[in-house]
Amino acid sequence: MTILTIDFEASCLPRHGRSFPIEVGIAGDGVSRNWLIRPHESWAGWDWTAEAQALHGLSHDRIVREGQPAGTVLAELAAAAAGRRVIADSLLDQYWLDTLAQAAGMPSPFRIDHVATLFDEQAADAARIAAAVAYADAQGAVRHRAAGDALWLAAVVSHLGAARPASLLLAAQ
């Protein structure tokens, strides 16, 4: 099965309050795509922190202005992930996928596996993981933006040789 990596950026980390997804990115086969997510009305009053904004560089005004509705993002994300194993490097990504799906009035279209599961399946020791991380770091992905983080993780997975990377024919947006 091909692997698709995923990453979400959010309004804040859950330890700082009620957070909602503001961007999602996917990557495979050296190609990435991202969506800005317009805040859903059910998220009104949820938290937004300056710390998170400083990290990802996305303002609330920008996601309101440029973001797409939750249902649109979820449908396009589900289509891109169809038939692929989806991997993330944070357990929080499943929470944000579930939050997005709930706002869209749909069930989550897939489950997200944590990359540690893949490391275990590949019997990757600390040295092999460190080499994969160093390889990914050398690729120059822009970190703390969803597509860049997904590309970084795809490079880690690819270096491990864990699976054939997902072939994505993604239109530039």
From TrEMBL:
Q: Tell me where on the tree of life, at the top rank, the source sits.
A: Bacteria
The protein's matches in InterPro entries, at most eight in alphabetical order, are given as:
RNaseH-like_sf (IPR012337), RNaseH_sf (IPR036397)
Q: What is this protein called?
A: Exonuclease domain-containing protein
